[in-house]
Amino acid sequence: MSDAKKIKKQEEVSEESSLNEEVEIDKANADEESCVHVHLS
């Protein structure tokens, strides 16, 4: 029983970390785009 709970918790944590990584990537892409706009203007 406790093993199943541990595994479920690990899955939740890994899902959260992958979501955070996606957010970081989005932020990086937005930063790059804003830099490009500055260079163009």
TrEMBL record:
<protein>
    <submittedName>
        <fullName>Uncharacterized protein</fullName>
    </submittedName>
</protein>
<feature type="region of interest" description="Disordered">
    <location>
        <begin position="1"/>
        <end position="41"/>
    </location>
</feature>
<feature type="compositionally biased region" description="Acidic residues">
    <location>
        <begin position="13"/>
        <end position="24"/>
    </location>
</feature>
<feature type="compositionally biased region" description="Basic and acidic residues">
    <location>
        <begin position="25"/>
        <end position="41"/>
    </location>
</feature>
